[in-house]
Amino acid sequence: MSAPAGGWTTGTIIELDHPTDRLVRLRLHVDARVDHLAGQHYVVRLRAPDGYTAQRSYSVASDPDDPLLELMVECLPGGEVSGFLHDVAEVGDVLELRGPIGGWFVWEDDVPAICVAGGSGVVPVVAMTRVARRLGLQDRLRVVVVARTWDELPYAAELRRYGALLALTRENLGDRVAAPPYPEEVAPLAAGAGRAYVCGSVGFASFATRLLEGVGVPADTIRVEQFGETG
Ligand SMILES: Cc1cc2nc3c(=O)[nH]c(=O)nc-3n(C[C@H](O)[C@H](O)[C@H](O)COP(=O)(O)OP(=O)(O)OC[C@H]3O[C@@H](n4cnc5c(N)ncnc54)[C@H](O)[C@@H]3O)c2cc1C
Predict the structure, then answer these.
(1) Of the candidates 165, 193, 161, 190, which has an alpha carbon nearest to the alpha carbon of residue 179?
(2) Could you give the CA distance from residue 189 to residue 142 in angstroms, rounded to a whole number?
(3) In angstroms, rounded to a whole number, what is the distance separating the alpha carbons of residues 164 and 142?
(4) Which of 41, 86, 97, 157 would be a feasible disulfide site paired with 59, CB 3.0-4.6 Å?
(5) Are 27 and 12 in contact (CB under 8 A)?
(6) How many CB atoms lie within 10 A of CB 110?
(7) What percent of the chain has pLDDT over 90?
(8) What is the DSSP letter of 181?
């Protein structure tokens, strides 16, 4: 499948909220928007009055059917772009955007799949679950998400309602004692999957890839999106 690709445009912030201290959720009206596929991302470019620019990638959380484009940004300590979006951006601001971007890390609903995502790496997976729910294809998309605590997991309540396995590593959740996901928990979800999606920090991606391979997922079916430092 060839994924849609969009050029530079602008987006107006229509809604902005802070679901937790470290997260900001932005919902934008995008001019001449090109519909995305679940899993794609946009580049956000900030421009100072002296012409200095900084740009970073942010995955789309929204269903392509949503009239607004939703981004969820984790504010990193000292983060240039995430700090601005978290602390300074306001409803009505206009941002420079380029997208949608990415043709590899997109959900194709023809094959049963498993996603393993950590921290803000859940954002593209949320878009996938929203599409799966709309199409009634939840059985084709199984999800494992990992974070230290409930508050550090974007969309925790929505992912739990979807039926994702939530593995919190520093907080008990119901009967589940704090721990990374166990192979015994992941194996039944990976059974029959013809494709896997892994998303998160570089360290998380390597952990999740090993976990999936350990429960029998072939390496060549695993698609990885790393939220490493932006060059
Ligand atoms: C395809 C793609 C999609 C992404 N989607 C999202 C998303 O949906 N939500 C989201 O919050 N982020 C996402 N990111 C990460 C995002 O692009 C930025 O890297 C992040 O917001 C930090 O940018 P900054 O300008 O705030 O920090 P910077 O000013 O660049 O860095 C501040 C500090 O944070 C460290 N740092 C920089 N980037 C990261 C990182 N990703 N992880 C850990 N430490 C880092 C730096 O070493 C530095 O110490 C995505 C990245 C990619 C490549």
Answers:
(1) 165
(2) 6
(3) 7
(4) 41
(5) no
(6) 10
(7) 96
(8) P
What CA–CA distance (Å, rounded) separates 60 from 68? Answer: 10
Q: In angstroms, what is the span from residue 201 Cα to ligand 1's centroid?
A: 9
Does residue 76 line the site of ligand 1, with CB under 6 A? yes
Classify the phi-psi angles of 147: left when phi > 0, otherwise alpha if psi is within -120 to 50, otherwise beta: beta
Q: Give mean pLDDT, residues 110-122.
A: 97
User: Residues 6 or more apart from 203 whose CB is under 8 A from it?
Assistant: none
Ligand 1 and 120: CB distance under 6 A = yes
Nearest CA to ligand 1 atom 17: 57
**CATH no. of 8-101:** 2.40.30.10
Strand partners, 9: 97
Give this prediction's pTM: 0.96
What was the pLDDT predicted at 231?
41
Class of domain 113-226: alpha beta
